[in-house]
């Protein structure tokens, strides 16, 4: 007998106006700038004390940003992350608001693979490095492999949760892009579970190219873990395609990307 998949719950972002989002844009940027300086100073001056507390400040920053912009965040399945640690949490990447969503839901002791371009933002890049986050240089294959090796060491040696965007960058056309293979080589190297972290509503609240978000609701669903204990690097493309199909059950494909599996 064929097993029926559970129905995917619909999500209504309940969009409101953009006036509030436009008015708070500059205060939100100033707050983020000041927050980065304070966190950097604490991590530099009191590294041992702050090493186990900085994600609490990250949660506060995320909640404050939600409050400023008038956004609501619904979460479903977050306890699965702690229950599955060590693991890889893979999230779909839609806009800068993803940073707010991740900050608000950040698992204690987790790290993230982030784009090295964040180092161009004064103080923020240094704060991220001090917090033990791992930059990845997409323009340099050798440096990118070194970052994946560092992430694998964090998983193996410290049992950490690693957050990573398998699309590699924000979806500029909306929908789910093809997945890069690097995150799945990391899964093959560590053989820890993958947890799909599905975010919906971000693209509607803050469409690409818009200044200031609408008020509205963003929903996060953390799905059942994907077992990687038998994975091997020879089948990494197949593994990436299967994982992307899990996301595609919840999200539409981006224009020009594969409608099933993976073409990367």
Summary of the model, kept short:
Helix content is 43%, strand content 14%.
What would your notes on this structure say?
With 264 residues, the chain is an alpha/beta fold. The protein has one domain (19-248). It is built from 10 helices and 7 strands. The protein has helices at 19-45, 47-51, 54-69, 79-84, 97-105, 124-130, 141-158, 182-190, 202-205, 236-248, and strands spanning 71-76, 87-91, 111-115, 134-136, 161-164, 194-200, 216-222. Strands 1-7-6-2-5-3-4 form a 7-stranded mixed beta sheet, with helices on both faces. Helix 6 links the parallel strand 3 (111-115) and strand 4 (134-136). Helix 1 (19-45) runs antiparallel to helix 3 (54-69) and helix 7 runs parallel beside helix 8. The protein is globular. The model has no long low-confidence stretch (mean pLDDT 88).
